[in-house]
Amino acid sequence: IENFRLMEEALQNERYKEELKIAKMVQKSLLPTLLEQDGDFQIAAFSESADEVGGDYYDTLRVNEDLVSIIIADVSGKGTTAAFHMSQMKGIFHSLAQRDIEPDSFMIQANQALVYCLERGSFISATYFIIDTRTKKVRYARAGHCPVLYYDAGKQALEYFKDRGVALGMVRNKSYSNFIKSYEFKYEPGDMMVLYTDGSTEAKDGKGEEFGYDRLLTTVKEVSSLSAKQVQDHLISKLYEFSGTDNIDDDYTTMIVKFV
Q1: Cα separation of 114 and 230, whole Å?
Q2: Cα–Cα distance between 133 and 150 in angstroms, integer?
Q3: For residue range 224-235, what is the model confidence (pLDDT) as tens digits?
Q4: Model's pTM, two decimal places?
Q5: Residue 33 in 3-state DSSP?
């Protein structure tokens, strides 16, 4: 009987490993291999999953010659469920972004679509951007995601955009529109947006201390004048150096948008 029980456990572990393997493949296929580039900006992105599959998602979509949409999102949960919800988010992004609607409308419609898909207790945090290279402006809406870290080249200063917004799936009725808002700012050459998921700020060292928002700001400040790819490489290397291991507890995902 004991041998039979151990055999059952071994089979369950194998099935679990196979499930994780499939989920990792699905997750990897959902992330873009190429990101939109433009004469006005550079984009670099990095995503590394923890041992368990997470639900970090980022993407870009060109709407027309002047407009490019960008999204970064974090699906709650792990494993195949997170990968499945990530695929739903990708479908919603590509469907709605092509319609050139305002960021708050994007979030409201995305929330309406997701409430029929997400089980109770599941949610997706996200920030959605529209870069307009004609007006040199960025419109965006934040749905409970990590605040954007913005570098103002003219002032040589970094700040977090702590805008209000509730994660998708948290409010399951039409009152969600009361919790989301569009924002806008004008960009200049040298400015930069640093987008990331909470796995980056919550990365821990051997003593259990988190990387945190202050350390993220300081790390970006060290290389704020460099290209998007160089900023990304520096930030990722600092994260691994801080944690002291390649076996991360959560997903590391960053997306750097450098205006030129």
Answers
A1: 36
A2: 18
A3: 999 999 999 999
A4: 0.90
A5: coil
